[in-house]
Amino acid sequence: MKAFIRHTGVGVPLRRSDVDTDQIIPAVYLKRVARTGFEDGLFAAWRAHDDFVLNHQAYRNGSVLVAGPDFGTGSSREHAVWALLDYGFRVVISPRFGEIFRGNAGKQGLLAAQCARDDVELLWKLLEHEPGTEVTVDLTEQTVQAKDLRFGFAIDGYTRWRLLEGLDDIALSLRHAEEIDAFETQRPPWLPATTAIPASAD
Amino acid sequence: MGRTLAEKVWDAHVVHRGGGDPDAVTAGTAPDLLYIDLHLVHEVTSPQAFDGLRLAKRQVRRPDLTIATEDHNVPTADIELPIADEVSRTQVETLRRNCSEFGVRLHPMGDIEQGIVHVVGPQLGLTQPGMTVVCGDSHTSTHGAFGALAFGIGTSEVEHVLATQTLPLRPFKTMAVVVHSRDGSLPPGVTSKDIILAVIARIGTGGGAGYVLEYRGNVIEQLSMEARMTICNMSIEAGARAGMIAPDATTFDYLAGRPHAPAGPQWDAAVQYWQSLHTDSDAVFDAEVDIDADALTPFVTWGTNPGQGLPLSERVPDPDQIIDEGQRLAVRKALSYMDLQPGTPLRDIAVDAVFLGSCTNGRIEDLRAAASVLAGRRVRDGVRMLVVPGSMRVRAQAEAEGLHEVFTAAGAQWRSAGCSMCLGMNPDQLAAGERCASTSNRNFEGRQGKGGRTHLVSPLVAAATAIRGTLSSPSDLEP
Ligand code: SF4
Questions:
Q1: Crossing angle for the helix pair B225-233 and B364-374, nearest 10 degrees?
Q2: Considering all CA atoms of chain A, what is the largest pairwise distance in Å, rounded to the nearest integer?
Q3: 20 to 30 A Cα–Cα from B55, which one of B49, B150, B203, B296?
Q4: At A7, is the secondary structure helix, strand, or coil?
Q5: DSSP labels, B269-291
Q6: Which residues of chain B have pLDDT under 70?
C-alpha cells in the first residue's frame, strides 16, 4: 500500500448526500475477479448524464472528491474504494462516512477526511466558482487547503498512522501470531468446524 | 459494572488488546485483534481476497472455520445449464477454483446446501450463540439473531481473515432497541419485517452508525428464530454494523439437532455457556430506542432508501411540507426516481412485479406466510411474481409441504435458490421503469436492475400485493 503524507490535486464538488456504494459503483461491475480496472464503473449511472460533474473538462482529472454527508453508506463492497482509487482519487472529503466504507478506504490508501458541514459548503462554493482549483490535503497536519480556504479534518489516530506509514494490514496482525496460536488452544470444544461434515440431521 | 451481550462476546474473542500496543504512535488507539469463529464466503467479494493470498504466498489459516456458497450471481431457473452471462460464470468458476486450491468447503449450484450465505449458515447449525461471524456481505448482521457478533467486511478484510482468522476491530457503541407490546404479541398482519422497517424509519439510515443494536423486549422474546433473523438482517440499513438478540429457549430449540450443532455432553456445556450470554441488569447502553408494537401496522417504503417508509394506510409524502431543505430535496429526488405523486395513497400504487425471497425473507416461514395468503387465489394479470427460496434446502422443505403448488397454482414462478431479484447481478432483474414490491432489504436506485423501482414489504404484503396488483395487506383482500 502506498503511503499517504500529503496530496495536491483538482477538487471535485459532488453536491450530493447519501451517496451509497451502489451509486459509487453499481452491482453489475462487481462481477470481475481482477483487482484493477474499476474506474469505468465509478458513478456509472450518473456519468451517463452530460451534466454530471466528472463530465466537465475542468474536473475530469480530479483527485480530491468533496461530497455531502453519509458518503459510502450501504453495501460493504470494497469495489467502491477501488473504483475511486482506479479513477485517480486519493482523498474523499465528507461530513460523515458510511462506516464500512471508511474502514475499507483506510486499508487501501484512500484518505477519508471528515470535515465540518460548513467547511464542505465553502469548499463546494470555491470549487464551483473556480473549476479546476487544486486542493492540498496534508495528513501530517490534518488540514485541507484550497486558495485562501483552510480547515482541519478528523481521522482516527490509528488509520492516520497506518496511512502515513503505508502499512499492510495482514503483516500488522501477524506480529501477534503467537497470541493467535495461544488463543486457538483455548477455544471451547463445542464450536463448529466446517470441514467435519456430519451426517445429515434429517 | 455489568456488560452488554455485545461486550461479552467481544471480550471472549480478544486475541490482543489494542490499547496496550507498544507502538508509541498508536498507543491507546490501535484496534483490538479479535478471533473469528466462522467465515462465510461467496463468489462476489472473495476472488480478489484469494488473489491477494496467492500474491503474498499465504495460505488459508483455518479452512475448517470457513465455508463458501454460490448465491449472488446464480440464475434461479434452468440451473443445470451453464451460466449464460460470462462474467457471472467467471466469478462462480473462480470461487470453485479458489476453494479447491485452498481447501475450503463449497456448496455449488445444484447442491442441496447451496443458497444465500446467510440462510445456509444458520440452517446448517454453523451459526451459534456467542460466536464471531464475518462475511464479505453487509447482511451478515443476520446471524446476530443467535446472539452471535456478526458483521459484514470488505474484500481486504476477507483476505485478512483468510490469512489470520482474526480481524483488527475497534469496539462499537451499543444501542438497545426495545420492542414491546401489552402481551408481547404483534397486531394482526404485522411481521418482524414491519418492525424493522419502522425502526429504520424512526432512527434513519444513519441512526445506528457506530452501534451494535441489541433488540430486546417482550415482542422480540416471542419471535421465532426466522423472524429474529429478518430483524437483525436489516440492522445494516439503519447504519449499524451489527444487530443482536440474546439467545434463549427459542434459539436452543432451533439449533438442537442441526448438522453442526453440538451434541451430547458438548451440547449441555454449550447451553450452559449460552445462557450467560445476555446483557447484565446493571449494564448501560450508550443509546436506547423504544418501539410500541401495539401501534404498528404493515409498513412499506415509498422512496429510495430503507428509511423512507410509512404505514401502508398513509399517503406518499409531500416534499413541499418538509421544512428542512436537505430533506425536502432528498424526498423530491426520491419521488422523481420512484415516479410517485405526493398525496397518492400508498394502497393505490400499482406494481409490475413481486419478489418473495432474499436473505431477509427467503426462509420457510416467509414462504408459508405468503402461501397462506395466496392459497386459492390468483396473482393478478399483468403482475409477475417470483418466489425464490433462500436455499435449496428451504426449497425442498417447501416442496415437501406442498407450498410450491400453492405458488404455481396462483400463477407465481417457483425458482431455485439464490439472491435473485434482491440485486441486479443475475438474470432476475427489473426492466427500467418497472415497479416491484419486494421482500428484500434495499430499495436503492437501480438495486433490482437499472431504472427499476423498489418498494420494500413483508411477505404478507408481497402476497396480498400480487393478488390485488397494488400495494396491499391481507386485510384488503376479499375473504
Ligand atoms: S439476498 Fe440480497 S442482501 Fe442478501 S446476500 Fe443476497 S444480495 Fe445480499
A1: 100
A2: 71
A3: B150
A4: strand
A5: HHHHHHTT-S--TT---SEEEEE
A6: 19-29
Residue B25 is predicted with a pLDDT of 46
Distances (CA, A) of B49 to A192, B31, B54: 24, 22, 9
In chain A, which residues have their Cβ closer than 8 Å to the Cβ of B255? Answer: none
Radius of gyration for the alpha carbons in chain A, expressed in angstroms and rounded: 20
Under-70 pLDDT residues of chain A = 197-202
Residue pair A164/A140 in contact by the 8 Å Cβ criterion: yes
Q: Please list, in sequence order, all residues whose beta carbon lies within 8 angstroms of the beta carbon of residue A187, skipping any fewer than 6 positions away.
A: B35, B37
Which chain B residues are Cβ-neighbours of A199 within 8 angstroms?
A: 259
In this prediction, residue B462 carries a pLDDT of 98
- CA–CA separation, A77 vs B46, rounded Å? 11
Amino acid at A129: H
Phi, psi of A186 (to 5 degrees): -110, 10
Q: Give residue A98's identity as a one-letter amino acid code.
A: G
Find how far residue B219's CA is from the centre of its chain: 19
Q: Find cell 406442498 and name the residue.
A: B402
Beta-strand pair B105-107/B66-69: parallel
Q: Are B116 and B359 in contact (CB under 8 A)?
A: yes
Residue A197, classed as helix, strand or coil, is coil
Backbone φ and ψ for A11, nearest 5 degrees, come out as -85, 140
Rounded Cα–Cα distance for residues B406 and A64 (Å): 55
Q: What is the residue type of B359? A: C
Residue A129 phi, psi dihedral angles, 5° rounding: -70, -40
Beta-carbon separation of A194 and B260 below 8 A: yes
The 10 Å CB-count burial string (b at 16+, else e) for B62-99 is: bbebbbbbbbbbbbbeebeeebebebbebbbebbbebb
Contact B283, B175 (CB under 8 A): no
**Whole-number pLDDT of residue B156:** 85
Query: Which of A81, A156, A180 shows the shortest C-beta gap to B166?
Result: A180
**Is the Cβ atom of B359 under 6 angstroms away from ligand 1?**
yes
What's the confidence (pLDDT) of residue B479?
A: 81
The response to whether residue B150 sits with its C-beta less than 6 Å from ligand 1 reads: no
pLDDT at A197: 60
CA atoms of B1 and B280, how far apart (whole Å):
9
pLDDT at B326: 86
